[in-house]
Amino acid sequence: MVNWKAIGLGVIITLILAYLGKYIPHLDNPIAPIIGGIFAGYVVGGSYKNGVIYGGLSAGIAGFVYTLLVIILSAGIALATTVSMNIVPNTVSGESGIVTVSIIILGAFLAFGIYLILGLIGGIIGIAIRERNAEKQILRS
């Protein structure tokens, strides 16, 4: 059974940190999927395999969504700028349109892959933190 709470939490944390990374110094994008993976791994618990799966999946989904949002928002800003400057935007057609769409798709898949790998690392860390906390509670009892 899939733990959607862990995946959703990891995606939301990764997206928020990736967005804030543009405005807060030293909170760069590579940190966001690791922290999101840590939270997903910690919430799901279990084995390191669970941490790898949930950390990677949540961060990978967030990377894909973040890339698409950046592309959509950038296109909207570019269109608004051209309209406000009374410039007639060229329609994307022919070979240039294929190249543009290919670059967008490639960027989304690259972001998914990079965030996935960093999320895997975060998921492993999250499981390790959870296990360490469980050991401390056992020792306290």
Q: How would you sum up this structure in a few lines?
A:
The chain is mainly alpha-helical and 141 residues long.
What does this structure look like?
It is a single chain. The protein is mainly α. The model has no long low-confidence stretch (mean pLDDT 82). It has helices at 4-20, 31-44, 48-84, 94-140. 82% of the residues lie in helices and 0% in strands. The longest helix has 47 residues, at 94-140. Helix 1 (4-20) packs antiparallel against helix 2 (31-44), helix 2 packs across helix 4 and helix 3 packs antiparallel against helix 4 (94-140). The protein has four helices and no strands. It has one domain.
Task: Give a quick set of tags describing it.
141 residues, mainly alpha, 4 helices, elongated
List the helices and strands and how they pair.
Elements: H1 4-20, H2 31-44, H3 48-84, H4 94-140
Helix pairs in contact: 1-2, 1-3, 2-3, 2-4, 3-4
Distance between the termini: 31 Å
Spans of 5+ residues with little confidence (pLDDT < 50)? none
Strand fraction band? under 5%
* Largest sheet descriptor: none
Radius of gyration, whole Å: 19 Å
- Structural class based on helices, strands and sheet pairing: mainly alpha
Overall domain count: 1
Q: Write down how many β-strands occur, each being a DSSP E stretch of 2 or more residues.
A: 0
Compressed to H and E, one letter per element, the order equals: HHHH
